[in-house]
Each structure stands twice: as structure tokens, then as C-alpha cells.
Amino acid sequence: MRGSAGNLTSVLRCNTANSSLTFGVKKENMNNRIGSVQVWKWSASETRTTHSQTVSNNLKTHQMYLLGKRADKIEDFDINRLVDNQVPESKNLDYKKELHLSRDKDKKEFLFDISAMYNTDGGCIIYGIEEIKDEKNQNTGKPAAVTGITIDNIDKLTQQIEDIIKGSTEPNITQLAIKKIIVNEKSVLIIGIPKGLGLPAMITFSGTNKFYKRRNSGKYSVDVYELNQMFMQNHVLREKANQFRNDRIKRVINQENIPNLDIETSFFIHIIPVGFLDYQILDFSTAENDLQLNMRPLYSSGWDRMYNIDGFATFSTSPDRKMVSSYNQIFRNGIYELYTSELFYETRQGVKGFNGNSFISETLKVISEGLFVLNQMQVTPPFLISFSFHNVKDKVIDSSRSFYNREFKQNQIIFPLIQIPSYESDIYKLLKPNYDILWQSLGFAKSPENK
After folding, report:
1. In whole angstroms, what is the distance from residue 372 CA to residue 381 CA?
2. Which DSSP string do the residues of 116-157 spell out, in sequence order?
3. Domain identity same for 69 and 51
């Protein structure tokens, strides 16, 4: 039986940057099940509580927040509060008296505003608020009154906004928070815009091909030097993600984190939010049951769960329940790691191999499940996703296609990090180059199509 869950009694060592802490896992059978999943508690509940209390909100650093609330949680009294206190515009806040999307000129100006905030620090644009004028009749950036805009159908307007932005930005700006609010019997529209964490977004509408950013006084078109810095920032984030992945793999394979981890052969998948360096601590305490159900370890039919110093994990054990064979770990900074030693098995030829027919579909499935968990935790895209094999030299691919001389020539293969722009992205299409590299390393021209 592969990947069965059991009452694991072992020692798991969890490392932080400056310390190494060892925890005992207490057998605490609760005699209840979620589906086929045995439920048990991590005995170090004090650690869980301490970390939960440090959490105010897991995504405030990625903006779309106003007065400490997500844009789609703003109410009428929040808008009145902005006006009454004359809260001025900033890099993260913009007031607009009107919203026009019918003419190309209007659409272009709208896109400039959205992309400028996305390429800076994210924030909120509020339509239906008039600004105080100075002696030259110029806007001062301070709200004067709620004037409102006409919104006949918020669903149609939302669809129109999303279509305009999706069709005119590269890479696409997604994950907007759009809400209609009735303030003093007038309609106000608020659009929450996330901070761009990957490549900067270019406006492509009508061949514009421009990049914008925002300062306190408004938007501006970036010059070639600042544009270069924006792309370099993305490169630095990618390097940091790659460094985290490599360091993490080394610690896991050296059994520094889990001394009783089966490492005869090792397979990892990493899902890394590009902005992981900026995240505040995720709060897992309110989503324990959802995490339990959706964090299915690779090649497992049943699994256990635990809180640890890094965050929250699910895992399955060997048939004798002495070794950890697979686990999923979600870190407090939003990184999602999957590990298994169950990928390879004894083939009919008496050598270790993995099932090439099911590999692609199984990895896509667990990646989709991982992204679902991150979406539930409101972790902001884009993501960097990759997988890696370790201790696999002379192992083979076992499939309907001949595997004569189709063994791994290397002991370790670490695949490139592939950027996934949004939760709606075609994961298979984006990861196809890595699947092709895997099959080519085994002597095939390309990977089979996923059906």
C-alpha cells in the first residue's frame, strides 16, 4: 500500500534562518475522520497560537488595501471618512470624478491609470469623487464631495473593465477587486489593483506599447533607465526564489528538517509567489480543515497534518509507518512545497522506474490543488513553478513506449522556474517546456501530450 496515513511518532526538526528547533510529534488520535483522512493534532499548540497572534492580514504588503481593508470590503462609511478627513491622493490612492470607457481616448487613459498603480505599489482608484480645486481651478488631490457615477449594471461594467484590461496589457493585469458602493444615495466604484510582482505591465492598446508608474501627484511614463530597473527587479526576485529553492532542497535531502524522511529517490515541486520576500505571515488557523482536505501529498490515498515552525504540512508515511514518504508544506510566506519518494517503484524488469503515462497528469493535478490552496489563502500571483529529481541516476521511465536505454544519466535534474501569471493561466501549456526537457533527458524528442 503506497502513501497510507498513520499515527506517526517521530522527531521533526524545523529550521529557521537563525535557529534549529526540534519538536516531538505526539500521537493524539481524535477518533474522527474527514473522508478517508485520519485527523490528529500537533502537540506544540503553543507555537501555533503564538504565530497566529502575530497575523493582522496576510496580504497588506501587496496593497489593494484602503483604511486597512481590502478594496472589496470597503463600505459607504469608509468613503465618507476619506472625504470628511480630506485624505489626500498618494501612490496607492487616486480619486476620479467620472468613469468613461466608450472612446479609445478614454480607454487609453483608464489603462494608463490602472497600469501605473500596478507597476508601482498597487492601490485603489475610486470613481465618483470630486476633488477640491485650487485658485487655478486645478485638482489638489484632496476629496471634496461624493458626486457619484452612473452604474446601470455592475456585472456588465465589471466584465467590461476586466475585458479592456486583459486585452490591452502585457503581461495581463488580473486579480482586480471591483466593487460598487452606494454612498449618500450615489453610486461609487472602487477598483483595487494588486502590486505587480512579475514583469512590469505594458499598455498595448492601439499599439501604445508604453509603461507607466505612479507617484503621489499622479502617473507618468517611465524612461528607458527606469524601465531597465523594473526588469532588473524581476530578475532579482527570480534569483532569490531560485536561491530559496536550492537551499531548501539541500536541507531536505540532508534530512535536516525531517530525520526520518525517505530519500532513496526524491522528487520536489515548488510553487513560489514572486513576491514571497514581501509577505507578512500567513494565518493558517482559520483554514485548517480546508488545508487538510486540499493539501493531498503526491501518490497518497490518505494523509496526516501538522503545524510546524515553517507553517502547515500534510504528510503520508511508509507502510510500516516509520518513514515519511510524501509531504506538502505551505510556508508562512506563501511558498508551497511538495515532496515524494513514492514516484519510483520496482518495474517488471527489476529496476527502479516511474510511470511516464501518469506523471504529467498527476503533477498537474497536485499543482492545481496547491494553487487552489494559495488562492483560498489570498496569496497574490504571479508564481514561479518548477520540479526537480534527485538520486535518480540509472532509474528509468516505465511506459507503453520503449524505455530501452531510457534511464537517467544524471543523479540530479533541477528544472527552470516557469512563471505562472495568474490563477487562470494554462498551467500545462506553460510547464510543457519543462516536461519536454524531462523526456529529452531520457532520450525522447518531446513529452507526450496530456489528454
Report:
1. 12
2. HHHTTT-EEEEESEEEEE-TTS-EEEEEEEE-----S-HHHH
3. no
- Tell me the three cell numbers of residue 393: 541516476
CATH number at residue 150: 3.30.950
Give the sign of the dihedral formed by CA 316, CA 322, CA 323, CA 324: positive
Query: What is the C-alpha to C-alpha distance for residues 154 and 70, in angstroms, rounded to an integer?
Result: 19
Answer positive or negative: Cα dihedral of 376, 379, 382, 383.
negative
Number of structural domains the chain divides into = 2
Shared domain check, 70 and 49: no
The model's pLDDT over 213-231, given as tens digits with 9 standing for 90+, comes to 999 888 999 998 898 888 8
What residue type is assigned to position 254 of the chain? N
Last residue of a domain, one of 194, 217, 246: 194
Kindly state whether residues 270 and 399 are assigned to the same domain.
Answer: yes
DSSP state of 274: T
Residue 187 sits in the same domain as residue 315: no
Strand-pair partners of 74? none
139-187 per-position pLDDT tens digit: 999 999 999 999 999 999 999 999 999 999 998 898 899 999 999 999 9
Integer Cα distance of 432 and 31 in angstroms: 43
287 grid coordinates: 483554514
DSSP 187-255: EEEEEEEBPP-SSPPEE-GGG--B-EEEETTEEEE--HHHHHHHHHHHHHHHHHHHHHHHHHHHHHHTT
Neighbours of 164 (CB within 10 A): 16
Q: Which domain holds residue 387?
A: 11-57+231-441
Q: Phi and psi at residue 354, in whole multiples of 5°?
A: -125, 155
- Which is it for the CA torsion 173, 177, 178, 184, positive or negative? negative
Q: Within a domain: residue 222?
A: no
Determine the Cα–Cα distance for residues 111 and 123; give it in Å rounded to an integer: 14
Cα angle value 194/196/198 (rounded, 5°): 140
Alpha-carbon gap, residue 94 to 126, rounded angstroms: 6
